[in-house]
Amino acid sequence: MAAYQELRAQADQRWLGLISGDRPWIRVGTAMCGQAAGAVQVLAALRAELDKRGIDATIDEVGCLGICFAEPLVDIVKKRGSRLFFNNVTPEDVSRIIESYLVNDIVPDEGVIGYLGQNPVGDVPSLNKHPSMAKQERIALRNAGRIAPADIYQYIARGGYGGLNKALFEMQPADVIQEITDSGLRGRGGAAFPTGVKWSFLVRSPGPPKYILCNCEEGDPGAYNDKGILESDPHTLLEGILIAGYATGATNGFVFIRHGHDGPIDRTRHAIAQAYELGLLGQNILGSEFSFEIEVSLTGESYVAGEETALMDSIEGKRAMPRFRPPFPAAAGVWGKPSNINNVKTLAYAPEIILKGSQWFSSIGVNRSTGTAVLCLSGNIRYPGMYEVPMGITLGEVVNEIGGGVPGGKRLKLLQTGGPLGGVLGADSMGIHLDFEEMRDAGAILGSGGIIVADEDTCAVDLTRVLVAFCQYESCGKCFPCRLGMEQLLEIVERIAKCESEPGDLDLLRSVGETMEGTSLCGHGQLGFGPIRSALQHFEADFIAHIEEKRCPTGKCTGPMLSPKNTRPYAFDFVPAAPETTGERPRAEIRG
Amino acid sequence: MTGTVEGFKRRTRRAITSQRQPTVTVLSCLLAAQDELGYLPDEAIEEIATYTGTTTNEVWGVASFYTNFRFTPPGEHAVEICWGPTCHLAGAPGILQSVLDLLGLSGEGETSDNRISLKYNTCLGACSQAPVASIDHQLVGRLSIETARGLVGKLKAPDATR
């Protein structure tokens, strides 16, 4: 039997044991969103309670099902039954849940959000009918919250590594690239470049070595979907990297994650180790001629490290500063070798596209935006969470149906999309479709999928100030339009927020911003004016009130403006640390 | 002694020689050393320069770029509070101000007894649970001013334990 079929048979056997054995199967969401809601404590209480009662059950830590508002989320499968989901579980609830559902076989009246599976549980509604779930189409998130990321067999039992197997044994590398090109898949990191075309650049480059770099830096406030995928289903990413590696003739892969995000880091490293054990990484994968290595590369805190050329410098262990282009990464990337950089979500689609075909993928979505969008909804919204929806649905459907609208009877004021370099949209944007071009033309980008919702109490100047403060804090300092421009933009916006603006400040903002757009080295400076421009476009009245009437209509701008200062030394030459300076920050000496 | 020059050098060497990933760089060494020591004393910088065959200048250059590196000993407890836009909308400014007041600080840094280090974080990655903080590297979400003060206050008390 071929290597993959053997693995699949073992995996199916194990899966059957999980769902049809006598032991109940309990899953707890312990991704970062779950942890922040208290899932670690719930998990501990659950283990203690089962121990105390002597109940034999399988407990798995899973990632994020996406309905973060319901975290901590616990679900229980009893013999051949459906998954029954308990929402917003506290450690104190655990005993009642176990007593009621596992001991007495009674579905509790409270704290149950729904079931998933073939058979209804009591008169509990299907979770798929919940407004936050009903409009979803889950491809990249197909396994998120369903399988234990630590168990490779659960991934294989759900068809995992089937796409890789098909690519290796039924397709030539060129066929794989054709399939990805035909699917219309475009990069999900923000630039929306056609993935198949990008991969084809690398094919033509000489090797070995050639590198596939997966970008999970994800410093965007408001987006955690890349980390969410790594925490929930790291193998889908590894399979995507392997498919990209096979298609492009690459030899090595790096998964690039920010240090400190232990959940995604640990789960990815564990997944890599498992894949090596089962022959899915390393020499002659699944008995084929194809060999590939993957490792995790950690970066320090720096938002610009997510820019593709800065990312390469960071992998090399240097300061994460963007490089001049050309040469492009496909010609000279990390360590000067041909490289290809893809976002986590982009790669996570590849296995399903190969397995189900490009036509299936391109039939989802709209215009040149095929497939789905993985969104993170947060802010003043009823159902904050991580959702995957078909491209082409409207922002209104996303905010009001999936997100459940603005809570507390308040009105929607604005949406902030595409990360801090994206833009803001007004409440009149609900008819805009999730489409790369339509979003861009509206002055906001889809970016990496973060959508922050703000209600009527929000001051557009205040929110803009926070976005600009972020961009200033994260400027790497390599090129002076961004380094100096961001500082000026922040100074002016802070002045406006404090109602201390000077005549001509709006013109000055535009002049500085437009100069940065035209002259900065990378997207950080080029797009840094975006939030201000779109805020001015949609909420000029807020700015005018601060400037002319010297008042903040919402009162939000009256408090102290707390944000960290950018203290990166920008110089390229450092004075060596003398022994007597122990414990002091290095001093930069700016030359020229 | 672990805090002596030789102690720092030895611990740095051990940390950077036992990294798990195949690719070792100046940055990966810095991360490993800070994980071990809690900050980067000069000895760590020198040891990394020696080990990677580069100059202390180069190593300082990398270390001073990334905002997670610190060059003075941290407080016993680490408090990070997110100030990103989602947390901002959810009330982060009030939480930050009340924690600053509670700790007698005016910005990022250590309390005078070096018990608590306060850091502003740009995004802790759990925006759906905003406002979010991290206390001794454990995420806590859905904070109010009261819960934040309660959690940080516990660290402040003389009998606070990890």
Model description:
The complex is a heterodimer of chains A (592) and B (162). Chain A has 23 helices and 16 strands. Chain A has four domains: 116 residues, Glutaredoxin (3-Layer(aba) Sandwich), CATH 3.40.30; 201 residues, NADH-ubiquinone oxidoreductase 51kDa subunit (Rossmann fold, 3-Layer(aba) Sandwich), CATH 3.40.50.11540; 84 residues, Ubiquitin-like (UB roll); 99 residues, de novo design (two linked rop proteins), CATH 1.20.1440.230. The C terminus of chain A is likely disordered. Chain A has a five-stranded mixed β-sheet, covered by helices on one side. A five-stranded mixed β-sheet of chain A has the order 13-12-16-14-15. Chain A starts with a helix and ends in a 45-residue tail after the last helix. By secondary structure, chain B is an alpha+beta fold. Chain B has a five-stranded mixed β-sheet with strand order 2-3-1-4-5, covered by helices on one side.
Please supply descriptive tags for the structure shown above.
heterodimer, A: 592 residues, Glutaredoxin, Rossmann fold, Ubiquitin-like (UB roll), 4 domains, 5-stranded mixed beta sheet, B: 162 residues, 2 domains, 7 helices, 5 strands, elongated
Largest sheet: number of strands, sense, barrel closure of chain B: 5 strands, mixed
The sequence of SSEs of chain B as H and E is HHHHEHHEEEEH
* Total discrete domains of chain B: 2
Taking pLDDT < 50 over at least 5 consecutive residues as the criterion, the unreliable ranges of chain B are none
Instruction: Give the total of beta strands of chain B.
Output: 5
Q: CATH fold name of the largest domain in chain A, please? A: Rossmann fold
- At the first level of CATH, the class of the largest domain in chain A is Alpha Beta
**Arithmetic mean of pLDDT of chain A:** 93
Q: What share of the residues of chain B lie within helices?
A: 40-55%
Overall CATH class of the largest domain in chain B: Alpha Beta
Widest sheet of chain A: strand order?
2-1-3-4-5
Q: Which oligomeric state applies? A: heterodimer
- The CATH topology of the largest domain in chain B is given as Glutaredoxin
